[in-house]
Structure formats: C-alpha cells, structure tokens
C-alpha cells in the first residue's frame, strides 16, 4: 500500500480532490490541510504548488524552496542563471580563464567551449550554424 502511494506521488497523479473547490492533491495529508482553509482556520497556502501550512515559519521556509530551485548561482562570480545548462556553459568561461595566462584562449560565446587557436574557434562556430 505504501509503495502504491509513492508511485502515485512520483507519477504526478493527483487522486485527492477537494469537494468544495475541486483542487487536487497527490497526497491525502495535503488535502486534509487544504480542507481547513474552507473551515475558516487560518492557514498559509503556497501560490506555486497549493501546499498549505498552519504556521508562518513553515510557510516561509517552504517558499524558499521555490526560489532556490529557480536560480543557479556561479560559485566563482556573482552571476546567476535560470537554467542549469546556462550555468554549465558559463562555467566553461572560468576554465578558459584558468588556463595558462601566457597562452591566449578563444571562447565560444554560444556554448562556452575554449580554443587555443582562433581558426579552431571559427571552425567550431560552424557546428552551431550548420
């Protein structure tokens, strides 16, 4: 039975529905907490995922999980990115900067790959344009 509940939650199914407003939930416990909002109990409800909390501290901690997941921060500089792919591309820039400073490096602005010769960078650009 516990395995079935886990499978439902992982699949993204929302089998628990509120009879008052038709909002659906993957966990029965989330539905029970939500039902209290219709009883007039003061609850804090997340606008991102509709999860509800009985106290402001838990609610605030939960809100942070949404903002942290949306931002990828470079550990070497203060730049932030909305996707992990963008951050990875950016990190390659730092790799180029760490190479021998006497050796000039050429950075692909489209993917962040580094080249020691300008002609190799030009050839590489063709992989992006076809």
From TrEMBL:
GO biological process assignments: developmental process; regulation of gene expression
Predominant subcellular localization, coarse grouping: nucleus
Subcellular location: Nucleus
Top-level taxon: Eukaryota
One family name in Pfam for this protein: zf-C2H2_4
Segments forming domain C2H2-type: 16-43, 44-71, 72-99, 106-130
Alphabetical UniProt keywords: DNA-binding, Metal-binding, Nucleus, Repeat, Transcription, Transcription regulation, Zinc, Zinc-finger
Record-level GO cellular component terms: nucleus
InterPro entries found in the cross-reference section: Zinc_finger, Znf_C2H2_sf, Znf_C2H2_type
Signal peptide positions on this chain: none
GO terms, molecular function: DNA binding; zinc ion binding
Membership in a protein family: Belongs to the krueppel C2H2-type zinc-finger protein family.
Name of this protein: C2H2-type domain-containing protein
Annotated source species: Meganyctiphanes norvegica (Northern krill)
């Amino acid at each position: 039975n516990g395995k079935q509940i886990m499978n439902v939650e992982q699949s993204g199914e929302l089998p628990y529905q509120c009879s008052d407003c038709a909002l659906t939930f993957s966990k029965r416990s989330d539905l029970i907490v939500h039902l209290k909002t219709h009883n007039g109990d003061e609850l804090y409800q997340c606008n991102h995922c509709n999860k509800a909390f009985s106290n402001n501290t838990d609610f605030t901690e939960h809100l942070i999980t949404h903002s942290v997941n949306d931002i990828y921060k470079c550990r070497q500089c203060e730049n932030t990115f909305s996707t992990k792919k963008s951050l990875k591309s950016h990190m390659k820039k730092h790799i180029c900067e760490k190479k021998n400073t006497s050796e000039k490096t050429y950075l692909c602005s489209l993917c962040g790959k580094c080249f020691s010769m300008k002609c190799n960078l030009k050839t590489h650009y063709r992989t992006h344009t076809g």
